[in-house]
Amino acid sequence: MASPLRRTLLTFLILLLTVFVVMTLWRTRPQPEVVMKKPQVTRVEVVQAVARDINPLVRQTGLLRPWRVASLRFEVKGDLVERLVEPGQKVKHGQLLLRLDDADYRDAVTENEARLTETRAAIRRDRSLLGLAKENRKLAEQEYRRLVKLGEGSLSSASTRDSARQQLLKLSSDEARLAFSIESSQARLVREAAALKRAQRNLQRTRLSAPFDGLVNKVEAEVGDYLQTSPRVVELIQGEFLELYVEVSGDVAAALRIGQKLIIKIDGAEQEGELTALQPDPDAKTHTHPLQIRLPADGLLPGMLGEVLLPLEPRSGALVIPPAALLREEGRVYVFVVDAGRLQRRAVVPGIRYESQQLILSGLAEGELLVARDVEVLSDGIKVTAEAVESGR
What we know:
393 residues, four-stranded antiparallel sheet, Helix Hairpins, Elongation Factor Tu (Ef-tu), domain 3, single chain, conserved putative lor/sdh protein from methanococcus maripaludis s2 fold, alpha+beta, elongated
């Protein structure tokens, strides 16, 4: 009995000693040193907002396209029997391009001409009969009045008057019927004349002709095809001129005018063009103003790229910064101004971009320092050290 008790006491003493050692080691452990980290300072390149007198010349690149394009189609249905032109061929105004089978349309013209002739003959006949009816009615009126004046002397006289009166009524009815027939025929004559003109137009529409001098760009039908009225069958372009299409911002559009002469660079060569169209209301999606510049097509083809130089109004004391200093977020524009070693994110209103300079309309003052580039990784309020760079870089 003593031996188990001794072992239990020994085990308890060992556990107690172990706990004592662990607690002693925990209390005497070395304390970690507190390291005070210095706040991180970001190095940025800064530039000064400066005011300059500039004569802006904006460069815009656009695509050359035909000055005038016509998508031609037939206005009547039929089988194509003649294809007289091919893509690339020059054509003159009024030149026949394609022709449909016109047999049915010629028959329609003949049929309407016959109806018109028949109606005109009926009108002439009824007018002649109406003249005779009027004469007969007048004679009947005279006879009836004569019998009335003779008085009522006998039964035979009354019977004669009644007969004369009935004859007068019949002749008056015939006259009215003929007058109505003439009016109806005249209305029918108008309808048939319109139907004849329509048939003649449809006959003419079986011939597709060039609406102006130009070049055939596409022919999308073959002889033997049955053509409907809606699809385009020929595309014709005006080959004497081309137009350069570009889209510009509102401040650029405000400085331009219709008829203004502009310089266009194409493959290193300069040509003069004329501003022919400028949309005053900006596009709802891009908020830009489309414009068109017409220029001679000598040696040029649609699809080539052209760069137009757009001279704007001279600006005195314009505030400029590098374009890379702008931060665009959710439709707004910001810059980071350095103030007392910290960044201040500030909203600005940009103007046009001129070469390597960005005009600022409001939000900055001359002489203020701002971050010149890499603004996407910065945030408001952080501490920075500034490294100056050349203004306008």
